């Protein structure tokens, strides 16, 4: 086979590839190359000139208005179980994040778990592995849970059911917009109603924004709040620092440890 000569050395090429993956360009979208110049030539011809010699743009066809939040509410409400919720999310086309993600990340853990841990959004590892809290962040979360006798592989009293506010990894590492959080909230609320946790952990700003309408996790962490969905019972919810942030800010681990003990005490008392 002919060797392809390149001015880049191996390590530079690898670093460039990594950078592109960080930006979200981690897939070849088409097997065959597309000649965009040819595409341009096959575009529809310009409108003919009018009697005054001027060309007018074609009259735009009015698109029916869609309300993504109303659509999300309708789809989510119809889901009777977790399989139905997954199908509803797969049929929801208003969230731009979905276009760039490899797959939908719904949850991991036993549906009977007492604790539901709600994270922010899948990252690169989650998108690859198809489960929430994967990679180093997931390993730290697993250690934190194990310290209070919980695990994502346990069920009932020892189980932690993991999910995220956004079920798709975004194209870049940008924050989710308020509109994106609002359109995914009905699915999250339905998820809570179907899983019926006794206690929830809100890991990071996004779940606090979606369920408590508050941000500022450094201030909110460690204080119990309550979340009520679809007329169900008020569920105790503990805001905590996301393990992803804990890895960048090890000083916050002491507070996280105090929060975990708080969670354990609540579970023992219920
Ligand atoms: N990974 C997740 O799945 N969720 C988070 O909130 C952070 C990392």
Automatic annotation (TrEMBL):
Recorded hits in NCBIfam families, A to Z, give: UDG_fam4
Question: Broadest EC class?
Answer: hydrolase
Xref: InterPro entries: UDG_Type-4/5, Ura-DNA_glyco_family4, Uracil-DNA_glycosylase-like, Uracil-DNA_glycosylase-like_sf
Q: Which residues form the Uracil-DNA glycosylase-like domain?
A: 106-261
Per the UniProt entry, the Enzyme Commission number(s) are: 3.2.2.27
Question: What protein name applies here?
Answer: Type-4 uracil-DNA glycosylase
Q: What are the entry keywords?
A: 4Fe-4S, DNA damage, DNA repair, Hydrolase, Iron, Iron-sulfur, Metal-binding
MF GO annotations:
4 iron, 4 sulfur cluster binding; metal ion binding; uracil DNA N-glycosylase activity
Catalytically driven reaction(s): Hydrolyzes single-stranded DNA or mismatched double-stranded DNA and polynucleotides, releasing free uracil
Q: What is the top-level taxon of the source organism?
A: Bacteria
GO terms in the biological process aspect are: DNA repair
Species name: Thalassovita autumnalis
Show the segment(s) annotated as Disordered: 39-67
Protein family per UniProt:
Belongs to the uracil-DNA glycosylase (UDG) superfamily. Type 4 (UDGa) family.
Gene3D superfamilies xref list? Uracil-DNA glycosylase-like domain
